[in-house]
Amino acid sequence: MSELLAFSNVVAGYGGARILHDLDLRIDAGERVAVLGRNGVGKTTIVNAFLGIARRMQGEIRLAGKAVGDIRHFTAARAGISVVPQGRCIIPNLTVRENLILGAAVRRKGAWTVERVFAMFPILKERADTPGTALSGGQQQMLAIGRALMANPHLLVLDEPSEGLAPVIVDELADNLRHVADGGTGLLIIEQNYSLVRRVAERYYVLSKGEVAEQGAMAGLTKESLKKHIAV
Amino acid sequence: MANALLIQVLNGLVYGGLLFIVSVGLVLIFGLRRVVNFAHGSLFMIGAYVGFSIATVAGFWAGVLGAAVVLAVAGVLLDVSVFRPLRRQDPIATVLVTFGLLLILEDLAHTVWGKDTHTLPLPEMLAGSVDILGQPFPAYRLMVIAVAAAVGVGLALWLRFSRVGLFVRASSIDPVTTAVQGVNTDRVSALVVAVGTGLAGLSGTIAAPLLALSPSMGGSILIESFIVVVVGGLGSFSGALIAALAIGQIHNLGIIYVPWAATMVPFLLMVAVLVWRPTGFAGSHV
Ligand SMILES: Nc1ncnc2c1ncn2[C@@H]1O[C@H](COP(=O)(O)OP(=O)(O)OP(=O)(O)O)[C@@H](O)[C@H]1O
Ligand SMILES: [Mg+2]
Q: So where does this one cross the membrane (chain B) (predicted)?
């Protein structure tokens, strides 16, 4: 299996503060992996580390199988890894359509086009020419996912996609993500929402205090360890 | 009377147009780098001299083009050597460096072109005047209005409809998210700074036949451009356009009708805008 994203013994943080300690993690092509963990354990810092936003202090980060020393913000996107950031980060002065086009900045050919994103999220088509931030929270989440898919990534990383969404919308989100994964795109879902993860992921990591506390197949995740590591 | 007023309005448009070309450069640079470029007026001045030197050997239009290109290259150097390394420092550091650059460039002009004022002759083709409702109006001045309009339309189309223009607008609001999409925002910034300084060079040469060339000629246009940028809203393209046109008129009509207050009026406008609407009248997006 070809490796999409891997952390080996990574120590990372901000300024002098170490948030991730000795983190090991690996996702291969086509896998659907969840990272679970409570507020503030360092989940977003994993994303920030491979985006060059947090500082890597030790260890190795590999993007598409290649160890990258000096990670720039655009390195991951160019290696086929797209991120749906926590809080969505829709660009307010761009329209819905322009936000999608921005996602195609890497110009990787593939199945995902503006039309295909519109087919998956029809509401985005209706609101194509309104400013991205005029959408509701759920619609902005769709836009952020659509924007990430526009890069035709090998791996889609979602940081707490269910945050702030109504339960019915989370159900739809699960269907959409399975649809994306069925197209062969790998998924890394960072979540505290167990019901979303259970329906999408096949393998999990539980993060605690910046380290992997537990990992395994989704089916083997017990209620006890869930209670211990995340609030259900 | 009405015709005379029309001529005055056209003269105001000439100055407003020049002011727009200079201030839109400031606006673009501020949008991408969050830097207030104090050297911008000096780049305008250097542009005028460079254009003058090229024009005397290769003709007026070669001078205009040459000044734009030379100053654009200088803009890339400025971005790579000053704005990029200092982007994580206190903004005051960058402001001080651009202020230092202002002094260096004025000295450079003294050294290279001497203390005497030069004049760039009008291109022959545009030396005459055009009849506008029975009043003669210099053809060259009409051309300045046309160039300013072309710059405005060209920039608007580029920002609105091109792929890079989209990256520019996105980076000016959220550079990190834009870069995360795979855009090399440092390159976008270098390009935008080059466009901004290139326009300063272009406007310097275009303005040269209307002004006397001197190393200090960048000072007043810098100040009025700052007023434009503040009145229009820091970082706003359409705001800069409206404010430049308004200040062009105010500047020009003021000189004629209230000469004793002419230099003060733009400042009063700025103060009024700051009190009434501190973000400028168009907000703050490129
Ligand atoms: N940009 C930053 N600079 C400094 N410290 C930060 C920064 N971002 C996060 N931190 C700190 O790093 C720690 C881990 O934060 P992180 O955002 O990775 O947690 P998280 O698991 O994603 O939390 P949440 O579930 O709330 O999103 C927190 O203590 C936080 O205060
Ligand atoms: Mg987080």
A: 12-30, 60-80, 92-113, 139-159, 190-213, 225-247, 254-276
